[in-house]
Amino acid sequence: MQTGLSFFARLELRTLPYRQTGVFILFLGVFLFLSMSMAVSIGSVSLPLERVWSIIFHQLFPESMPGDWPRNEIGIVWQIRLPRVILGALVGAGLAVAGTTIQSLVRNPLADPYLLGISSGACTGAVLAILFISRILNTKLSGVYSISFLAFLGAVLAFFLVYMIAQSSNGLTPMRMILSGLAVSYVFMAATNFMIYLEQRNGATSAIFWMLGGLGGARWEKLLIPFVVLLGSMSFLTMQARSLNSLLMGDENAIVLGVNLNRFRLTLFVVTSVLTGALVAVSGSIGFVGLVIPHLVRMIVGSDHRKVLPVSAVVGAIFLIWVDVFARTILAPRELPLGIVTGFLGAPFFIWLLRRKSKS
Question: DSSP assignment of 207-220, as one string?
Answer without folding.
Answer: HHHHHT--STT--G
